[in-house]
Amino acid sequence: MFKRLPGDEARNLVTTTPDTAVVFRPAVIRTPAIITLIIFTWRILTGCVRLVWRHPIATLLTSTPGALTLAYGWQTALLLLAPVPTGLLAWAFTDRLSFTRLIGLRLLAWWRLTWIYQRHWQPVMIVSGLGRHLWGRDYLPRLGKLTCTAWADLVTVRMLKGQSVKDWADRLDHLAQGFGAPSCRVAITRGGHLQLTFPRTDPLAVPLAALPLPEAPTVGPVEIGKQEDGRPWLLKVHGTHVLVAGATGAGKGSIIWSTIRGLLPAVQAGLVEIWALDPKLMELSFGRALFGDRYAATPEDCADLLDQAVNVMQNRAARFAGLQRSHTPTEQDPFVLVVVDEVAFLTAYQSDRELRRRISAALATLTTQGRAVGVGVLAALQDPRKEVMNIRNLFPDKIALRLDESEQVDMVLGDGARDRGALADHISPVPELGAGVGYVRLETSPDPIRVRAAYVSDTDIRDMAATFAAGKDAA
Ligand SMILES: Nc1ncnc2c1ncn2[C@@H]1O[C@H](COP(=O)(O)OP(=O)(O)O)[C@@H](O)[C@H]1O
Ligand SMILES: [Mg+2]
């Protein structure tokens, strides 16, 4: 691959006869001018074809006025072309969304590709160590297509032969700074090809208000917030267990409350029961009326309530055995969601050893056997270390909100999550900017996704309690 140039060998030669000058005369081959011309013409032609192929719309937009002027003179060209910008403007004003999607984002992609990525590609690659400068030549990863979405630039890249995804994952900061983006994420698309994501704006930078209550009762994935790409964030609770980890003030409450809010219509329809354990007496006590007598705060009451849940689970298991392997919520056998805030207060930090043992055993039983019979656990936790939460791996789904240390990210989301861009330790501690923001891994992909939960305010909770507790009495 690396062609030897004249002079490379001369460096390594040693003469054994002193005082004798070694003279090299590089072999000069004179290339006929016609061949040089053909090569240059070929390069220009392929360059043009590539330009048209990659940016058909931009090329059309820039070349048409010139072509028309040449053919018919500028007056006719102006007359012919005037409707185009007028039409585009009208389109932009009447249907902003489709205009942005079909024209705006493509123009932006063309502009950003040439002005930012192509211009800085070589220096960024060399300085970050992803490209090589060898024997006077640059060997750079190939910059591919750029697609702009509403919030990010998606850049495809062909790696150099011999590079690994980890080489890139280790240099996300270099890439982000190099191209002037706040952050960068890397995902593999196929062998040797990567997709880099450079966010342009942060759609999650402003808090989200509580979402409207679902119209129809549902236990299916509950909408609890927004994903970074603007799509709704759906959290699956039926048929799994969810562990939410986050430092104090990270917004664990907003995930718990958004989930409860999304399930309330189903609670009213009798398809879901929410059992609340609130050892810190800070979070769930606010909506106590929603839980009826399925609410516990003291460690003793919590242990009793968990034992009851285990009973329900075992009864169902005995009844379902041999009849059905998965649970469908009905009024007789509703989906039971056990919500535990600050679960470490009941396990690791609980001084009464007997209680601690009972609670840990009950939680372990629920998380290992509850899924198929319609008993789920949603637990919130500050410190994800194993000493604090030894059953954390029994929760199939985990959410990492703001964490204090970088090592904690992989403890929550699994190995390599932080390398792939789950920077949960970099989330802002300012509540408006960072509370409720976190990373999740969906079943379908190993790449973590940034999300933000909607904030259910105290007023919202009071309203929910007033509406639904009343409904309960009436029923
Ligand atoms: N999703 C959110 N969006 C905006 N602000 C939030 C959100 N969740 C929480 N907050 C703010 O952050 C503060 C702490 O949230 P909280 O849920 O009590 O944290 P934690 O339970 O993790 O300690 C709240 O008082 C609220 O002002
Ligand atoms: Mg809390």
CATH class of the largest domain: Alpha Beta
Strand runs, count: 16
| Alpha carbon gap, first and last residue | 78 Å
Radius of gyration: 31 Å
The assigned CATH architecture of the largest domain is 3-Layer(aba) Sandwich
| Overall structural domain count | 2
| CATH homologous superfamily designation of the largest domain | P-loop containing nucleotide triphosphate hydrolases
Shape: globular
Give the amount of beta strand, in percent.
15-25%
Give an overview of the whole structure:
The chain has 475 residues and is of the alpha/beta class. It has two domains: 67-199, Threonyl-tRNA Synthetase, Chain A, domain 2 (2-Layer Sandwich), CATH 3.30.980; 222-474, P-loop containing nucleotide triphosphate hydrolases (Rossmann fold). Helices cover 41% and strands 17% of the residues. It contains 15 helices and 16 strands. It has helices at residues 8-12, 33-54, 56-72, 74-81, 83-94, 96-128, 165-169, 172-178, 252-268, 288-291, 299-320, 353-369, 407-413, 431-434, 458-474; strands spanning 132-134, 137-139, 142-148, 152-158, 185-190, 193-199, 222-227, 232-235, 242-245, 272-277, 295-296, 335-340, 375-381, 397-400, 437-440, 449-453. The strands form three sheets. Strands 8-7-16-15-14-9-13-12-10-11 form a ten-stranded mixed β-sheet. β15 and β16 (449-453) form a beta hairpin. It is globular. The N and C termini lie far apart (78 Å). The structure holds adenosine-5'-diphosphate (ADP) and magnesium ion. The site of magnesium ion has 5 residues, from α9.
